[in-house]
Amino acid sequence: MTENRGRHSGVWIVAEQREGKVRSVSYELLNWGRGLADGRKAPLSALLFGRDLDEEEVLSLIRRGADRVYLVDDPAFEHFLAEPYGRALTWLIERFRPEIVLAAATTTGRTIMPLAAARLRAGLTADCTELALDGESGDLLQTRPAIGGNILATIRTPRARPQMATVRPRSRAQASEDESRQGTVVRVDLPEACRLSPVRFEGFVPDRSQERPLEDADIIVAGGRGLKKGDNFSLVRDVARALGGEVGASRDAVDQGWIDYPHQIGLSGKTVAPRLYMACGISGSIQHLAGMQTAEVIVAVNRDPEAPIFNVADFAIVGDLFDVLPALRERLETRRRRP
After folding, report:
1. Which of 48, 58, 232, 279 has its Cα between 20 and 30 A from that of 25?
2. Which tens digit of pLDDT belongs to each residue from 132-175?
């Protein structure tokens, strides 16, 4: 077990890229990491996997707070595959021995961080909404929703190193860019064993029902069991389109086959934190609330005035969604047509 605290130092974030472009969640992680690194008086490093990455994309991590970028530029990492990414992350941690490693609570982070933590026998806290340092020990204090979001638990790893956590996207603003910042790019050559995978990438089929991933959406309109049947999801799609947003769903709606799993939000789906979240016909089970309650503004439409969703809503519309949504869509379209 990696228990020697004194031999680990520095804060790492696992940056993400898609089609050669660094994802915005990487800049959110840099904002988290910069504060922790300053608190520990340690360097902040970013780890980036990819192939033939543009130099400006790599340097953007330094301009936004990283002191060092560990760059793995290799054909084996052009596309995300769990096994080589997990092996590589484990090898890099064992070689450079950071004290704290952060990743986003995205598909990538939720996949490779547990793989590495298990192999390293390190502590891992998933889906954190707050990170801080203990004033006496310097331990990482990792706060995350528990019991379906009803309480917040603060977790620490007092012995095992590194301390590892995934952080909920949109839980902090992106780090601002400073053109004057200087840093170092370290190109890392990995052992052949890190490139091995029992899975071969054949191709990527995008979900044409979404303009962008739910995790990146600023506006989400979600439907639940109150829609009564799959055809009625057209009401949700119409409002989402009028608002320039994406469509989400509760687990009930997905289980009924009304909409595909990539739209599912909650503990068993995706965690989102948009600027606006509109819940239509969703009662508000604790599992669903855990996936969306950190949205900046929550609007809920439900016939039941006692629905749990209203406990977290900023704006509550008690009414029949079959009346409310068409009226809202018409109002939005009328407003958009105004000169």
Report:
1. 279
2. 999 888 899 999 877 666 678 899 998 899 999 999 887 888 99
